[in-house]
Design brief:
The structure holds 2 protein chains of 2 kinds.
Chain A (H helix, E strand, L loop, with lengths): L2 E4 L9 H11 L5 E7 L3 H8 L6 E6 L8 H10 L6 E5 L2 H13 L5 E4 L1 E4 L2 E6 L4 E7 L4 E5 L16 E3 L9 E8 L12 E5 L6 H14 L2 E4 L1 H5 L20 E5 L5 H7 L4 E6 L12 E4 L2 H10 L2
Parallel strand pairs in A: 1-2, 1-4, 2-3, 3-10, 4-9, 5-9, 12-13, 12-14, 14-15, 15-16
Antiparallel strand pairs in A: 6-7, 7-8
Helix pairs in contact in A: 3-4, 5-8
Chain B lengths: L1 E5 L2 E3 L21 E3 L1 H15 L5 E8 L4 H10 L3 E6 L6 H15 L3 E5 L10 H9 L3 E11 L2 E8 L2 E8 L2 E5 L11 H7 L4 E5 L11 E7 L8 E3 L2 H11 L5
Parallel strand pairs in B: 1-4, 1-6, 4-5, 5-11, 6-10, 7-10
Antiparallel strand pairs in B: 2-3, 7-8, 8-9
Helix pairs in contact in B: 2-5, 3-4
The complex binds flavin-adenine dinucleotide.
Amino acid sequence: MNILVIAEHDNNELKSSTLNTITAAHKLSADIDVLVAGSELAEVSKQAAAIENIKSVISVDDPIYKNFLAEDFGNLVASMGDQYSYILAPATTFGKNFLPRVAAKLDVQQISDIISIESEDTFKRPIYAGSCIATVKSSDPIKVISVRTTAFDAANVTDAEVSIESKDSQNSMGNATFVKDELAESDRPELTAAEIIVSGGRALGSSENFQIIESLADKLGAAVGASRAAVDAGYVPNDYQVGQTGKIVAPSLYIAVGISGAIQHLAGMKDSKVIVAINKDEDAPIFQVADYGLVGDLFEAIPELTDSI
Amino acid sequence: MKILVPVKRVVDYNVKVRPLPDQSDVDLNNVKMSVNPFCEIAVEEAVRLKEKGVATEIIVVTVGQSDSQEQLRACLALGADRAILVETQSLLEPLAIAKCLVNVVHNENPDLIILGKQAIDGDNNQTGQMLASLLDYPQATFASELEIADNQAIVTREIDGGLQTIKVNLPAVVTTDLRLNEPRYASLPNIMQAKKKTLDIMNVEDMSVDINNRLQTLSVVLPEERQAGVMVESVTELVDKLKNEAKVLS
Ligand SMILES: Cc1cc2nc3c(=O)[nH]c(=O)nc-3n(C[C@H](O)[C@H](O)[C@H](O)COP(=O)(O)OP(=O)(O)OC[C@H]3O[C@@H](n4cnc5c(N)ncnc54)[C@H](O)[C@@H]3O)c2cc1C
C-alpha cells in the first residue's frame, strides 16, 4: 500500500504541516513517498529527505509550480495517482485548494480534515463545526485525504537522508497567473505551530486596543489569534482568524479575551490543552470550555496579567 | 456576462446540531434550515456584479431535495434572475454534486461560477474545486476580493499566511470567503417578486451521472466533552493556577 504525501513548503522551508501529515500516513503504511513540487527545490527536498521513516522523496522542480497554483499542481498530483493507494495532504489552505481537484480527476470522493485513522478505509472527521464527529468508510480504490494537522504529532526529522528522485513536470494549463502574495511578516510564532496563543474578540473595539493583546502575547512568546468578529471589523488581518472557517489550533495554552465562544470559534480551538477565558459576561459560552475563567473587564485584566508574568 | 451560483440548503448556523439517538446521522428533525452562509455571499457578489453592469444574468442552482426550493426562492429574493433545482431524494457527496453541476454548466455556459468555499454542514470544502477540475477550468478559492477585467477574474484570496492575488481566465470558478462582502437582507417586495421568477426543476436521474456515494457513514457521535473548569477571582489567582496547577507558564 503506497502512500503519496504532498509536502507543503514555500520553496525555502518545509512547513510543519507536512510532518503532521506524515504521522497520519504512518498509521496506514510505511511505504511513504513525499512529493515536493515547486521551484528551486534543492534545499526543501533535502529537508524532506530527512523526515524519519519515509521511503523516498520525489522532487518536481519547475517554475510553473512555484506558486502552487491549483490547476497545474493538481494535474501533477493526479498524474501520479494510479501508483498509490493513498494521497494525503494537510488540511491547510494549501491542501484545501488543490486536493479536491486531484480527487475529481481520479473520480474519487475526498475525505476532508480527518482527525483519526480507524482502519485502512475508515476515518473520523468533524462535521457541523465540530458539533459532531462522523466515522466514515471509503469504498474508493485511491483514498484522497486531507489531514487536520492538530490531530497528529509532527514526525521526527533525522540526520539520515532518503533518496531524492527527480520527476518531470506536466504541461502547464496556462489559465491562471500569480500576481502577488501579501504575507504577514511577524517575529511571533506561527499560529498553527505556537505553544501559546492569545486571541482577542470583538470586545477589543479597535486595532489600537488590540495592541494590549499583542503585548501580552509578546511577553509570553505567544502567537496572536482572533475571532471572526475581530477580523471582520478590521482590527487584525484575516490570517489571525481561529475557527470553523479559519485556522484550527491546539496549543498548550489558549487565552481567549473578549470572545463570546460561538460554536464556530470553538471549532478552531477547543482541542487546546489548557483554555483560559477572560470575559465580562459570566454567562458567556466560552466559559463552558475554559479550564480557568475570569469574569472581568479585559482592559483592566490584560494589562495586569501582562505585568504579572 | 452570465453567472452561475450553485447554493446549498443547510442547517442554520445558529442551530446546535446533535446526533440521532441511534448515532446513524445528525438529527435534522424540526431544525431551522437556511441558505449556507458562504452561498449567500456568493449570491451577493453576483448581484453586485450585475448592479455594476458587469453581469447580465444570474442563475442559482442547487442539487437537492424538493424542499431546497425554499432556499432557491430566498436567493431569487436577493437578486438572482432564475433558479434551477436538480432534484434528488438522496444526499449526494461533493463529487456527485460537482458532476451534476457540470451538466448544468454545459447547458447554461456561464462565464463565471461563484460558490461558497464550504458548506457548514459537512465542512468539506470540495465542491468548487471539483467542479473546476471536472471542467478543466481555472479556480480562485477563498476569495475576499473579486474584479472582472479583460475576460479575466482578478481575485484576492485568503490564505494561511495572509493574502494572495491571482488572475484566472474566464470561464472560471470562484469560491467565497467571509470577507468578500456582507450579504443584504431581502426586502419584502423582492421576496414577493421572487415568487414569480422562473424555477426550473430537473431530475438527477435524467443526467446520467454516477451519483453513488463512495463514503458510508458508520456513526455520528458527540465529540469528547471537556472537563468542567474553575472560575478564578483575580489575575493573581489565574497566574498562580497557570504556573503551579496547569504548569503551562514558568
Ligand atoms: C459561516 C460562518 C463561519 C464562521 N466562522 C468563524 C470562525 O472561523 N471563527 C470565529 O471566531 N467565528 C466564526 N463565525 C462567527 C461566530 O458565529 C461569531 O459571530 C464570532 O465568533 C463572534 O466573535 P466574538 O466572540 O469576538 O464577538 P461577540 O460574540 O460579540 O463577543 C464579544 C464578547 O466580548 C465580551 N466583552 C465585551 N466587552 C468586554 C470587556 N471590556 N472585557 C471583557 N469582555 C468583554 C462580551 O461579553 C462578549 O462575550 C462564523 C460565522 C458564520 C456564520
